[in-house]
Amino acid sequence: MKRYLTVGYGAAGYLLFLAAFLYLVAFLGNFWAPRTVDRGPASPTGWAVSIDAALLAVFGLQHSVMARPGFKSWWTRLVPPAVERSTYVVCSSVALVLLYWQWRPVPTVVWDVQVPAARLLLWAAFWLGWAICLAATFMINHFDLFGLRQVYLAWRAEPYTDIEFHVRLLYRLVRHPLMLGFVVAFWAVPTMTAGHLLFSLAMTGYVVIATQFEERDLLAALGDQYRDYRLRVPMLVPRPRRSRTARAG
Hints:
By secondary structure, this protein is mostly helical. It has one domain (1-232). The chain has a two-stranded antiparallel sheet with strand order 1-2. It contains 11 helices and 2 strands. The longest helix is centred in the C-terminal third of the chain and has 29 residues, at 194-222. α1 (2-29) packs parallel to α4 (84-102), α1 (2-29) packs antiparallel against α7 (148-155) and α5 runs antiparallel to α8.
């Protein structure tokens, strides 16, 4: 029975993540949703900014603290290791749902691109950002990242093994393509309001800070292998590859 509960919990956590992720796309794109970054309860500007900043801080703190090895070591004394990742996914999704529910729009327009070709280009970049996010998860191990592999191994009564470090596809261009995809999606919109700008600034700041912590953890776990990778590949912004002639010179 315990094995089935573990698998059920992991599957439920994954479905919650999918719902939260899809809603995030609608939330930032102002699509098909009752509450989005620009659609929701009206509040005075100062109050709205305070609430939104608090919601962003809750997500950022939860997402960073629960990802640290020290916290995981303590946390797995309270929850079974097999569901540690699924619990992280559930908590992250709940933090996002709270943000969607309580977000207060700040409707002041910062920019509004009216040229049809430019609007189309920005929407294309918006969708490209989300595509990069999703694709990047499969270039490492999508099912391990979201806890399904852990509960599957527990169901089979097999020990968990760490995923080997491989550099595939987008990871040859930047070390954190998942984060790059998010940043592109946060900013690539034809109409930017003050509320959306607050979200994009805060989440981009979180990405920069969180990747620094993740880099430290990866260096501790992988040592010289990751240190060499850092020397060869930029963190977030792709750079042109030097030609063989330039490298030889």
